[in-house]
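FOLDING PROBLEM:
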Amino acid sequence: MEARLNYFADPTAAKALKYFMSAGKVLKESPLPAATQELVALRVSQINGCAVCIDMHSKEAVAAGETSTRLNLVTAWREATVFTEAERAALELAEEGTRVADAAGGVGDEVWERAVKHYDEEQLTALVVMVSFMNTVNRLNVIAQQPAGDYTAGQFH
């Protein structure tokens, strides 16, 4: 499989993505726990069917010490007992933030309140920006049909 577009070969896209990827780096350095970031990135990517991001974030999570049990259960996190209450709140917010069209009201007040119990304002802001960032990256990759499977942990660091 070959991607429909090579974003880095196009001068306009390459310039835009340079800044966009810088935003991703800033998110990585935020006070939102790294494990939570990878779980959220993985779940958003699963919902959007972004194979290249699923590949990337599952491998980055493993490299950071995440267990295969937790990674395998992200897709069914509600029934899984391996996630903390804070992680569950982040995953729930990520799902509602990703499924905005499906949940016409966006992120519900109850979901927001559960997240507020576990994260301070700086972490919440990073979480919201991460969900938005991942949705954008997923769409770029899905539209261009970026192939997955060849990512190596740390490749973009």
Q: What stands out?
A: The chain is about 65% helix and 0% strand.
